[in-house]
């Protein structure tokens, strides 16, 4: 199925059709993620809320319960999740999102220092030197090389790292609601997540045999 055909309704129907093939945990994870995709679609005129909804949908896909700190587990789960996605993406739909459809927003995020973790780390520590800039330039060149060489796992890892910084700015109150200062990165983030999240969900729907991990908050039947 093409990305343009992927939305809440098509993914909801696919989940219903494949429900018998899925474990209870996997079905719950996908149901929650698809519900937040619906929320994002309903916020099409509000990029800030759309970005938040899309990230919650994405977070529902990759967050796993490993018996420890959620924030610490998230760091380890992130890369493993990316590796699984790329391994199961036989049609290279993720690369199509990042290169064929949204190469502009991808390159814009890669070259934007305000969604680079090292930039803000230097500002918080009041570091005078510009060492973060050298690291940022290396990261940007590496990402563009990944893009040109079709290294999907490496490119997706860097893109999601940039989006994670943007997510933190918004979720943790580090940005003003509907601020004009961050409109470009919010707009780029919405375009990328809006393409990636449905694609990720389709891959996960098509691979019920994969161990996608336990969810943090299972349904408790009372």
What does this structure look like?
The protein is mainly alpha-helical. It has one domain. It is built from ten helices and no strands. It has helices at 8-18, 24-42, 47-62, 70-88, 93-101, 103-110, 117-124, 131-148, 152-171, 183-205. α1 (8-18) packs parallel to α10 (183-205) and α3 (47-62) runs parallel beside α10 (183-205). 32% of the residues are buried. The mean pLDDT is 90.
Largest sheet: none
Low-confidence blocks of residues: none
Fraction of residues in H or I helices: 55-70%
Radius of gyration: 18 Å
Helices, by number, come to 10
Topology order in helix (H) and strand (E) letters: HHHHHHHHHH
Beta-strand share of residues: under 5%
Domains, number: 1
- Structural class by helix and strand composition: mainly alpha
Number of strands: 0
Note the gap between the termini.
39 Å
Let me know the average pLDDT: 90
Identify the overall geometry.
globular
């Amino acid at each position: 199925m093409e990305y343009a055909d992927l939305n809440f309704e098509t993914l909801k129907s696919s989940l219903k059709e494949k429900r018998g093939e899925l474990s209870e945990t996997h079905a719950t994870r996908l149901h929650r993620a698809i519900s937040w995709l619906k929320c994002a679609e309903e916020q099409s005129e509000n990029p800030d809320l759309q970005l938040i909804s899309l990230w919650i949908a994405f977070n529902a896909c990759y967050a796993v319960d490993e018996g420890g700190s959620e924030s610490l587990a998230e760091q380890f789960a992130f890369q493993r999740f990316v590796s699984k996605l790329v391994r199961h993406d036989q049609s290279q739909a993720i690369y199509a999102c990042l290169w064929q459809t949204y190469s502009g927003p991808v390159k814009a995020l890669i070259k934007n220092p305000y969604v680079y973790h090292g930039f803000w780390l230097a500002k918080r520590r009041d570091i005078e030197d510009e060492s973060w800039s050298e690291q940022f330039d290396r990261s940007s060149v590496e990402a563009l090389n990944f893009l040109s060489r079709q290294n999907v796992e490496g490119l997706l890892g860097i893109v999601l790292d940039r989006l994670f910084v943007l997510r933190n700015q918004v979720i943790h109150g580090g940005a003003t609601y509907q601020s004009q200062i961050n409109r470009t990165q919010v707009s780029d983030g919405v375009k990328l997540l809006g393409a990636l999240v449905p694609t990720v969900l389709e891959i996960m729907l098509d691979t019920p045999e994969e161990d996608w991990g336990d969810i943090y908050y299972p349904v408790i039947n009372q």
